Amino acid sequence: MSARAQTYLWFAQRLSGAVLALCVAVHLATIILAVQGGLSAAEILGRTRGSTAWAAFYAAFVLAVAVHAPIGLRAILREWTLWRGRGLDAAVALVGVGLALLGWRAVGAVVG
Amino acid sequence: MPGQVDALTVSVWRGAAAGRYVDYQVPHRTSQTVLDIVTYIQRRLDPTLSYRFSCRVGVCGSCAMTVNGVPRWTCRTHVDRVAKDRKLEIGPLRNLPVIKDLATDMRAFFDKWARAKGQFQPPATPAADFARVDPASAARREADAAIECIGCAVCYSACDVVAWNPDYLGPAALNRAWSLVNDVRDAGGAERLAAVSGDAGCHSCHSHQACAERCPKQLNPTAAIAGLKRATLKAALTGAL
Fold this sequence. Notes:
The structure holds two protein chains of two kinds. Chain A is an all-alpha fold. Chain A has four helices and no strands. In chain A, helix 1 (3-34) packs across helix 3 and helix 3 (52-80) packs antiparallel against helix 4. Chain A starts with a helix and ends with a helix. In chain A, 16% of the residues are buried. Chain B is 35% helix and 17% strand. In chain B, the strands form two sheets. Chain B has a five-stranded mixed β-sheet with strand order 2-1-5-3-4. Chain B has a two-stranded antiparallel ribbon with strand order 6-7. Chain B is built from ten helices and seven strands. Chain B has helices at 34-45, 79-82, 107-115, 138-146, 154-158, 160-164, 171-181, 189-195, 210-214, 221-237; strands at 4-15, 19-29, 64-67, 70-73, 87-91, 98-100, 103-104. Chains A and B meet through helix 1 and helix 3 of A and helix 8 and helix 10 of B.
């Protein structure tokens, strides 16, 4: 991988990490506020169903996870195993695609 | 003996990669350094002990060892500050192959300075005049912060990323590269930034700051590495990398 590509990889992880910090804070605050009146599936769906704002928020959350996690996983695998090269890069990219697809599917289920 | 108050039990690594700690009884004196201890053992108790030192005043960077689990410059480390229950454990630096006893093979450490393009690169055409560098300029101040390294490898030994990833250039080489990135006379530019990027370079740093914590000169290689991360990103975005 070129020096430029690796630099962008680092930047993508930094940027997605910053987005995640915000998303996790909002997500946790929402959970704490939401359980005040009792937690139920109906209550959650009542808040999210048809909401463009929550759809956009969680879609961005999923995207940040799908970018952040594979890059971190790649670094961990490089440090703790002997796995290197294109096979590793392809495998973690696949993890990212999987996280995005599963995450967006879940978002679709609660806002649709 | 003047200044002698009691005895220390000193465990010293003997052997190469395979070896063991051997205990020695050494007289404890006031203002005694860890290097004094090692020298006493070699001159009075066991002349076969191998270790490395030169200046004895914190300039040359050759006497670094692991003292009670922590990498330190032994010539400026007072025994009273590090001994626990009158005991000391002195071993070779971590992350470097042991040649014998307390002497490590420093080749990998210095080869990485070369890989990080840690040498001054003059421009193809010699400058017509002296470079005028404002001491208050941001670049000069960044270079000042990185320039006092004595090459002792304490940071390299303290760095977990070096332990996990043997290709990683390490704090000292990256710190050196950062001082040259901020040298306005240097023409190494993008080539050096490419050399310090990626899996073996600045982007692998976890910012644990063990290097900054242990550096005997109170330098901050983590900050230098953060500077390299910013510089490489800027170069990538402008097409220079």
